[in-house]
Structures are given as C-alpha cells and as structure tokens.
Amino acid sequence: MPIRPNTRLLIVTRLGEIHIELHEHEKALQILQRELDAMVVQKGRPFRRLSMAMAEAYIGLGNLDAATLVLQQLTSVEPPELDDLNDQVLRMRRLILSARIEHERLRFDEALQIWQLTLQTMQQLSIFRSRHGWTAAIIYLSMAHAQIAMGDTASGRQSWDAAVEIAMSERFEYVFPVLATVWLQKVVGEIYQSQGWPLRVMLPGGKSDLTWL
To answer: Where along the sequence do coiled-coil regions lie (predicted)?
Structure first.
C-alpha cells in the first residue's frame, strides 16, 4: 500500500529534523530539498513543517540569509486563523526561528523585540499555551541572554527568574528541534558562565534533569 503524500512529507521532515539534532545539517538539507523540489503545491502544514526544518538546517550551517528567506516565504502561506493546535505550533515555531536568527546575528536588540513578540503571541494562543507552557521558559531565557549581552543585567535577571518559576512546574519537551537541546544549553550555559545563576530543567521520558548549579 503506497504512503499518502502528506504522510511521506511528515516522515521525511522528521528524518531531516533527526539529522539536524545530530548536527548533520548538510544531510538534512539534501533530504528536505529533494522532497521540496518534488512538491507541486507548496502550501499547507506539511509544506510549512518541511520548510521550517530547512530553515533550522540553514541556521545550523550559519547560512542565516537562506534561513531568513525561507521564513519570509512562509508568511504568505500561513493561515490567518489559528484555531488548530498544529497551526499554533507552526506559528510559534516560525517566530522562534526568526528570533534565533537575529540572536545568531548578534543583533540582540532586534532579537529581543522578536522574543517579546513571540511571548505576546503565545499568550494569545490558548491551546498552545496550555499544552506547551515550557516554551515560555525558553523564551524568557533567550530574552535574558539578549538583555545581558546588551548590558542590562537587571532586566536579564527578571527574565531569568520568570523562566526559573516556569521550569519548576513545566517539563521541557522536544516539540521543536534543537530548541530544548542545543539552543537551551547554549543560552543557559553562557549565562551561567557569566552570572552563575542556578537552573534546573525537567526533561521528558524519565531522563535526568539538566542542572546548572
């Protein structure tokens, strides 16, 4: 029995995301680009998921211009109504990727603005917020990293404390590739190295907590 096109897209996208988690970004792009080239209609959730995985791979390679272009193209195919959890997840993922791109460019002021917009958007997406509250903790940690980089340690501490409070009750998940792994360890590790602030993060699947103490 042949695999349905949308099912195939989801499988290929997930495979690409696994390669990204393994830092095999070139391999991920090869798989994802081949699938993208074969698509007749480039819209819908499977297309958006695949495109965001490509943006993630470009970020991993340091090709931030290519990642930005992918995200810009996605804005034209994003639905205006976000009543479905899957669409809310994809909106949040696009915003988080946009913030990370500016963060990686070391444009901390621009990154902070997008992180704040992402947090505001999350407050409006009730289904996403109830399912993935841990995401707010990573947003706050990213804000803290940007604020400290700009010399505003006091605001950075406020953002950090907000993240700590969320992390005490929310178990972090792997809904977004890299976000709760590579990105989390990057921003928290650098803050801990410079400020020494403690943090404990609960992980899914019975895995040991991540701690910076």
So the answer is: 15-42
Cross-strand pairs, 202: 171
Task: Report the alpha-carbon distance of residue 19 to residue 89 in Å, rounded.
Answer: 21
Quote the percentage of the chain above a pLDDT of 70: 98
Overall domain count for the chain: 2
In a 13 Å sphere around the CA of 80, the CA atoms on its Cβ side amount to 0
- Residues 8-36 have a mean pLDDT of 94
- Sign (positive or negative) of CA dihedral 11, 12, 17, 23: positive
Residue type, 175: V
- pLDDT score of 1: 65
Which residues are CB-contacts of 189 (< 8 A; sequence separation ≥ 6)? 212
Residue numbers of the domain that contains 158: 108-213
Write the CA distances from 117 to 57, 69, 113, 139, 168, integer angstroms.
23, 20, 6, 10, 24
E strands, the chain, where?
Answer: 199-201, 210-212
For the chain, give the longest Cα–Cα distance: 60
Contact between 122 and 137 under an 8 Å Cβ cutoff? The reply is no
Residue 73 and residue 20 share a domain: yes
pLDDT at 76: 86
Helix, strand, coil tally for the chain in percent (to 5): 70, 5, 25
